[in-house]
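Hi W., the 6-O-phosphono-beta-D-fructofuranose complex you wanted:
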Amino acid sequence: MALIASLVLLAWIVAGLVQDRTSTWFELDLALRARLVVTGSRASLAADWMPERRAELERQLAEIASDERVMALAACGLDGEMLASTPGFPGQFGCRGIGSLARAGNASPEAPYREWSSVSRLPSGGIHSSAIPITQGGSQIGFLILLQDMSYAERREDLARTLLITSFGALGLLASLLTILAARLSRKAWGAEVRGILQGEKTYQPDFQPILRDVHDLVERILYDQENAPEIWTAERLKQTLRRHLHGERLVIVANREPYIHQHAPDGGIHAVHPASGLVTALEPVMRACSGVWVAHGSGAADREVVDKHDRVRVPPSEESYQIRRIWLTPEEEQGYYYGFSNEGLWPLCHVAHTRPKFVAEDWAHYKAINERFANAVCQEVDTDDPIILVQDYHFALVPALIRRRLPAATVIMFWHIPWPNSERISICPWHREIISGLLGSSIVGFHTQFHCNNFIDSADSYLEARIDREQHAVVRRGHTTLIRPYPISLEWPVRWLDSLPAPEECRRQVWDQLGLKPDALLGLGVDRLDYTKGIEERFLAVERLLDRCPEYRGRFSFVQVAAPSRTKIGLYSQLNDRVEELAARINERFKTEDSRPIILLRSHHEPPDVFRFFRAADLCYVSSLHDGMNLVAKEFVAAREDMLGVLILSQFAGAAKQLTEALIVNPYDIEQASRALEAALRMPQTEQQVRMRSMRSLIARFNVYRWAGDMLVDAARLRSRERLAERLTAIDDFSH
Ligand code: F6P
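Structure:
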């Protein structure tokens, strides 16, 4: 008992000491930051330090205040008059008051100002204020007041205190065990000594200070290194970003498609399948890195058998680093919300693929109800009132606003994975205002390209009472700001599926065996969901044209199409399936030889390692989307080619074409041009393939999915801290009146 009491007391004393120390460090850090901020801008500030240049001075102050921790600034003349300030500068930190403090100890009005700083602890949190003299040609011309937010320091102090008390708890437990052990094992002198120490007869307080200082230095150095690290983002860096900027431990993702679908296996067991989905390819590594919950439609035949009583299941199967929360839909609900409104309405509306969208009131009713159901599930899954929620895709346009209503302080990032049409086209949807307004519940709405952001901003401008902030790329509606930003999605880097695959030559050998190809055969590849936006028919026609024009490739060139069945309950998709099959048969009939056929159609689901084996084996990959938000297949092909070989042919209408400019970019409707690109790819010297591949690989490595998520989270954090500072400044004003 005495031991525990001693440890509690010790923890209390040390926690106090640590808090005191860290507080002093943070104050010193903030004073130093203030000095650094001014040092960099001193000359240009001094040049505008006069009442006539107020506008220029205000612009400079606003620029300095763009640092997320700087709350407000004011420029004060020698006589204590305010020359300029950032908007909403709080009255109680006026030039005269701060000026007299900066002259403290010397009341003479002519005395020079000295550097001064202080901390005001207000009910809403701490504010660090500094006065920094400004000089020109060796003479003082005034001083700058800089107010900084201390909430991050307070959060770190809390964290340090919690860590310390937890450590002492663990130490206490360990010490108790050791004490019991020591008492049992012997009554030797060292046992008594240890007990003496543990029972508080000796304290180690002074010894903690150098250790804590070292820990502080180390933590600061690591954080600094990470923030200024070279360009490659990793899972670890993303995790740190989440913790540092958003103080979040976990993410909540809402996406219709689940990352693991549980199915009954032929052997009677249950196995998890990876769906063919670019969204899942991109988001799953993010979730592994950050942990949390993925709220999704439970669509697998065995999904219900593996969840707990809260409909949750831990995944990935062997790692269990995050959870899926499954939402169940009746066949009618799935028909109306998923097949109907999402995929017969919004999907063709947003893709220019010449398919007429269908909008049915009943489908819309299901869509609204299911959006409500998912939003409710999200609100059940969060563990704070300001969680970070990533809402994915066109299935959930209404979810951001529904969450915002329930959790006004939440950070909601909506990512729209498909194109956004122009404002005239979006109005085809009878409920376009509800859709846009639902999305504007987000803190950020992200698209793959700036073009789609512009279309969205125009749509909001055209159909809602909203203010467009063109400089910030934001829509302001009923006092709420939503940033509209491009974030081109990408892959994890390196791709984990490659770990389990042999080198490209061996993959090629395996694929040659599987497809029965001749040793000197040449292989083209397409990998897609069977969807009319992917341009699969145009792709086959280009192969046919190649064989028409270049007889030397007949009997030698084959094109393997891996086509995952998709949305098969929709008539247009099953018709496409039939057309693709007929076309392949027709072309094969024309050009087949005894031991080869030009089109090899593999119409079934393939797990990622099988798909990556094809990527590694092929001579070229043709991505012929008629319209596509990004298309991650293009990036996957490049990621697979560690041998730097292989040629990517890419549709100009896929978002990826904006980034992968070393691909052979084609118009998939132009069959002649596409067939020439196929020919160019087959004739391309290896040295040229390597140059192109190396450059595309370096781009994907730098702009990988961790960076994609990190950029969104950092932007969200900035927005969040701006909103909090604005609230804080309002609170200060209220407090002082
Ligand atoms: O590309 C749009 C998209 O919804 C992706 O987000 C997803 O990867 C893909 O289509 C798959 O569609 P579904 O989930 O309907 O099979």
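The pocket of 6-O-phosphono-beta-D-fructofuranose is lined by residues 256-257, 277-279, 393, 417-418, 529, 566-567, 629 (CB under 6 Å).

W.
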